[in-house]
Each structure stands twice: as structure tokens, then as C-alpha cells.
């Protein structure tokens, strides 16, 4: 780290439904103990990770780290299943997800055939707008503000699509969380979008393809899905769990592999150092294995458990950085 300038850092938040309450805990701890030796130059997210990235970014650019922590707490308090009706619905959805992962025949219906999914999207939108003034976002995208990136997939073109800075609208965030079996696709710019878990999870490339003075020297990846597991998955539930984890990690590892290759080329002198810089990759991993059905579990006690775990992992990360 230079004595005269802070180390440029970007944070990428992996998606994973309710498990991204872990990410909120990580971000809260990082912001409470933010070191002036670091400058946040970008933050990205997919699905639930996009909720966290947006709340953190908005808190930072409208006030400071304290406000970012307050917004993360407020957002997850509203997303949690707190009232009796929501608690009942949560138990039903979690139970249905767990039952489906066993491979047993289950009644399935398209989200286009029932009203519930659109009501769910309406509730998420109202929650986001309760805490984020989206009309204010374009004016907050200053040159010195962190890059904000939200990941989706373009259903019609079959390609990744990201929304950055002033393009991050309520529709973009909803599109990033539009799980196709649960919600209708979100139409933006005359084409349809689904959950970003099908795409860059989380978006990395947009954080890297910026001006040299804003390119991160360190990339902190908050990783929800376990990278490794011991043994062979044999039961239908174990297979469903591991398949879910792998689907969330493959695109991430591909993007990180590109950064590592560029780092090697810079180190070996194949690329000019005045145009290309190395980016150190650091992961803050959940390190716990939960059943895939818990990704839809919004019980306040479970959300609190994940947040506490996030704060613990962030504390370990910061301790390692200081040692």
C-alpha cells in the first residue's frame, strides 16, 4: 500500500437468496471498521447480492459508512418474514422447496398462471423504494463515487447483461432477482430479463473495465456458495445442494480466472505496467453448508444467524489483513 494514496478496492457480492443476509453482515462489519487506507471504487451484486450492493452504495454516497450499515439493517428487517401471514407463507415455501429437492413428484405451476409472484415482486419493489430514492441515483453517480453494478441475464439474446450506475432502476434490481420458476421475467429496453444467478454471479468484469485511476488493486469477493465439498453427493438432496452451489460458482471462477491470467501476464512482462495493473483477489467465504431450501427461508432468526456469521467472517478477514 502506498503511503500517499489508499489502496483501491472493489467488492463483489454473490447472489443466493436469503443466504445473502450473510453478505449484509460482512458489509456491516467492513464498514464499521473501514480503514482510510482503502478506497472503495466499486461494488457489484446479483440477486440478493444486488440488494446488498445497492443499499451499501446508496448509504455511502448519500452519507457515510454508518448510514450504509443502517440501510442494510433496515432493508433486511423489511425483507424478513416478520408478520404472521408472511411467516406462514415462508414456512410453506421453504417446505415446498425442501420437498422438491428430494425428487418426489410435486405440483408445479408457471408464475404466469397465478397472481402470487407479481404480488411478491410488488412487495420487493415497495421495500426497495422505501429505503432507496431511485430518482436520486443518477445525480449520485459522481466521478468519485464507487461504480455500482447489478447483474441479470438477457432471456431473449441469451447473454449476460449488467446495469451500472444511473441504469440501476427498481426494474433492474427486480430483474436480477427474478428466479424464473418463481417470478415473471422483467421487461427492460424491449427485452426480458431473469435472475442474475444464471449469469455473472456476481458481476466482475464491469468492476475491472474502468479507467486506470479507478481500477481496483484488490477485489474482495463475498462468496455464498461453498467452493469445495468432501465426498460424493449420493442422495437426491445432496445432489440438488451441490448442483445449486456449482451453478453459482462456475461463472464466478471463470471471471476470476481471467483476472489471474492478466496478473500473470503483467508479472511476466507481457503487458505494460503503465496500462495494466495487477488485481489481488481475496474471498470472504461463508464457510458453512446449508440445505438449498434455506435460500428461500426468511425467518428473522435465520436472517440474524446469517448476519452474525457474516460479521464473524469479516472480522477474521480484517484480522488477517492486519497481521
Automatic annotation (TrEMBL):
This protein is called what?
Answer: Poly(3-hydroxybutyrate) depolymerase
Signal peptide residues are: none
* Gene Ontology biological process terms from the UniProt entry: lipid catabolic process
GO MF, any single term: poly(3-hydroxybutyrate) depolymerase activity
Whether Transcription regulation counts among this entry's keywords is no
Pfam families given in the database record: Patatin
User: Coiled-coil regions in this chain?
Assistant: none
Give the EC number(s) listed in the UniProt record: 3.1.1.75
- Note the InterPro entries from the entry: Acyl_Trfase/lysoPLipase, NTE, PNPLA_dom
Q: Which organism is it from?
A: Natronomonas moolapensis (strain DSM 18674 / CECT 7526 / JCM 14361 / 8.8.11)
Q: Which residues form the PNPLA domain?
A: 11-208
Keywords of the record, alphabetical order, are: Hydrolase, Lipid degradation, Lipid metabolism
